[in-house]
Amino acid sequence: MNLLVEWECVMEAPVDESLCTRIRRSEQALMAHHEAVLRGYGLTMTQYTVLLALSREGGMSGAQLARSCGVTQQSMSSVLANMEAKRLIRREASPVHAKVQIASLSEAGRELLDRAYQEVAVLERALADAFTPSEHAALGELLDRATAVLIGQTRRTGAAPAS
Predict the structure, then answer these.
(1) In this predicted structure, what is the pLDDT of residue 94?
(2) Which helix (DSSP H) or strand (DSSP E) does residue 150 occupy?
(3) Residues facing 102 on adjacent strands
(4) What is the pLDDT of residues 71-84, one digit of tens each?
(5) In 15-106, which residue ranges form alpha helices assigned H by DSSP?
(6) How far is CA 100 from the centre of its chain?
(7) How buried is residue 126: exposed, middle or buried, by Cβ count under 10 Å (0-12/13-18/19+)?
(8) CB-CB contact of 151 with 93 (8 Å)
(9) What span, in angstroms and rounded, lies between the C-alpha atoms of 50 and 60?
């Protein structure tokens, strides 16, 4: 099929049946759920993602966290300052680079993450329960494949992917 015919097929497809639209709707529903849950803990999605990253990786620089969370370094700097003021993280000078600050979880940050994670995990269990084990595995594989295509298309346009 040549590109013109493919484009005509895409343009003729109803918008509500578009895979991109369905993926976007799913992502929006997921984010709305997480944001509603996290709001009850005084966290934004980015702050929660920082807590998760630090719990999994240990100490990280602002640049590493920005890449991990898909935000700019300037945005991450503000997020980290806010989290440090709330005593959710600690920042110390890197032993390797004096100008680099390494963020790590504080005890209060770990406790808050543990509480929030328990509630966020309820959705993960509900989604797992909505599918048979083979459907769950297949959906995961299909989403991974879709993600790879989306990243590949983004790279072909010359734009950097979000994460």
Answers:
(1) 83
(2) helix 133-157
(3) 61, 92
(4) 999 999 999 999 99
(5) 19-39, 45-57, 62-69, 73-85
(6) 24
(7) exposed
(8) no
(9) 10
Are 50 and 65 within 8 A, CB to CB? yes
Residue 91, CB-side half-sphere exposure with 13 Å CA sphere: 16
CA–CA gap between residue 57 and residue 135 (Å, rounded): 31
3-state secondary structure of 2: coil
Q: Are 127 and 33 in contact (CB under 8 A)?
A: no
Query: How far lies 99's CA from each of 62, 85, 91, 92, 102, in Å?
Result: 11, 20, 12, 10, 10
**Which 8-state DSSP code applies to residue 88?**
S
pLDDT tens for 20-63 read 899 999 999 999 999 999 999 999 999 999 999 999 999 999 99
Q: Which residues contact 106 (CB under 8 A, 6 or more apart)?
A: 87, 88, 89, 90
Nearest to 42 by CA among 83, 96, 80, 7: 83
What global pTM score does this model have? Answer: 0.74
Contact call for residues 45 and 34 (beta carbons, < 8 A): yes
Predicted confidence band at 144 (pLDDT cuts at 50, 70, 90)? very high
* Edge-to-edge strand ranges of the sheet holding 89-93: 60-61, 101-105, 89-93
